[in-house]
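Appendix C: a fully annotated inverse folding record. The material below is reproduced so that readers can follow the format used throughout the book. The structure is listed first as tokens, followed by the designed sequence.
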């Protein structure tokens, strides 16, 4: 269900006019998604779903309550207002409650494409021909999931806060497997506009990985120089970016806590070449123009030249620490260079190339130690060339150490991780030393 800005504002105004609370906030979102699925070299299904979601938060003093629903009829929305007020009246006081912020100034949105919004399932199926042709030409089994989402989101509060945004997002995932089942390849990308996606190159990458990954040789676990392709970088650095939280750092519960008190804000923790930013106006991976609590998502440098420059700070914690509010980032931008992945490989004497990570989970938040598996193409690099495919691994590594040990960065590109798949990201392939593979995975 897609609403225009005028329609969303009208619904929000009617909804909040029924509020009897001291403060009230209404958040609305709607979407229309198309998808086409390819399996076994055939377009098998197409699908469409539409939805609407509304959440109302009401407060009486420091007592607050919420109610959420998925219907946009006036009676259903009124019920949400009344239910949130009932919950607020019987809730204990929240000592950290703050009333909603007032009117804000937002940057211009760059995340909407009329061309993407006009795509049909037939258009996606036609694009799928490119994937089928690439798979059939190399006699591999191709699969894909092509999805296009058109959406809106809005936030209105009794304090005068109002923000509305339209977005489009295309996410294409291509898999390939050799007919004997011995090789697997994968590639994915995301963009807000069709022109930003190079589908032939995406299909070719998945097919080539499948062919190259046949008959892997055993390689013992250990610490290796590693070349992580952008999807793997997206996952690990996504975990890092969203963990740059001021409160746990101030309270001594974070990898950013300084022994004896304080935080590591301002310290040089990473290699000189590492800079991490967020900017909703990025032309390749634009983010939402607003963040948590309807606050503007402004361009921000989180790591600059290896030095930690910023931490996420909620309104409550900012008030406690008498420091600026820093909302969560809405996209992920890691610096790089002009070097291609092939040029990065040429600079590695001995190392491991990782296409993709899978099932990444936190082991220790105090060090941001993560664990997960490699998948869909792991290769031994020998004297500047891909030598041969090797077995998959389980890894135990912290993105903090990963960025501290960076040796080289490639050209940034739009990327989709296995876990970080809904945060727009533009990241490079990355070479880092002493990456720890803790055990061999039998997955193929």
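Designed amino acids, in order:
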């Amino acid at each position: 269900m897609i609403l225009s800005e005028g329609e969303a504002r009208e619904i929000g105004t009617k909804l909040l006019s029924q509020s009897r609370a001291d403060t009230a906030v209404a958040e609305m979102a709607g979407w229309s998604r198309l998808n086409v699925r390819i399996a076994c070299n055939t377009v098998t299904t197409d699908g469409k779903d539409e939805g609407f979601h509304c959440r109302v938060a009401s407060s009486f003093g420091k007592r607050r309550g919420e109610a959420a629903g998925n219907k946009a009829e006036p009676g259903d929305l009124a019920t949400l207002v009344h239910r949130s007020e009932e919950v607020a009246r019987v809730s204990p006081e929240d000592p950290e409650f703050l009333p909603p912020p007032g009117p804000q100034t937002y940057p211009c949105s760059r995340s909407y494409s009329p061309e993407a919004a006009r795509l049909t399932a037939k258009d996606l199926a036609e694009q799928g021909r490119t994937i089928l042709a690439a798979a059939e030409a190399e006699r591999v089994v191709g699969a894909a999931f092509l999805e296009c989402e058109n959406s809106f989101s809005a936030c209105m509060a009794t304090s005068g806060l109002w923000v509305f945004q339209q977005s489009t997002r295309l996410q294409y995932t291509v898999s390939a497997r050799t007919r004997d089942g011995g090789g697997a390849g994968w590639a994915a990308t995301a963009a807000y506009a069709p022109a930003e996606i190079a589908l032939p190159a995406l299909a070719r990458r998945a097919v080539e990985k499948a062919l190259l990954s046949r008959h892997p040789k055993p390689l013992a676990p250990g610490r290796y120089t590693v070349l992580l392709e952008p999807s793997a970088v997206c996952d690990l650095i996504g975990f890092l970016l969203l963990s740059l939280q001021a409160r746990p750092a101030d309270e001594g519960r974070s990898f950013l806590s300084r022994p004896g008190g304080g935080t590591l804000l301002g310290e040089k923790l990473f290699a000189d070449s590492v800079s991490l930013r967020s900017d909703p106006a990025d032309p390749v991976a634009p983010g939402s123009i607003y963040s948590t609590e309807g606050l503007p998502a402004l361009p921000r440098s989180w790591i600059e030249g290896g030095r930690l420059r910023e931490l996420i700070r909620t309104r409550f914690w900012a008030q406690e620490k008498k420091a600026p509010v820093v909302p969560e980032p809405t996209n992920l931008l890691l610096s790089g260079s002009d070097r291609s992945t092939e040029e990065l490989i040429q600079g590695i004497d001995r190392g491991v190339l990782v296409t993709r990570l899978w099932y990444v989970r936190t082991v220790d938040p105090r060090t941001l130690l993560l664990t997960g598996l490699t998948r869909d193409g792991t290769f031994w690099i020998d004297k500047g060339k891909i030598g041969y495919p090797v077995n998959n691994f389980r890894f135990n590594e912290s993105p903090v150490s990963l960025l501290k040990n960076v040796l080289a960065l490639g050209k940034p590109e739009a990327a989709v991780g296995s876990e970080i798949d809904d945060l727009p990201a533009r990241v490079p392939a990355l070479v880092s030393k002493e990456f720890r593979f803790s055990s061999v995975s039998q997955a193929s």
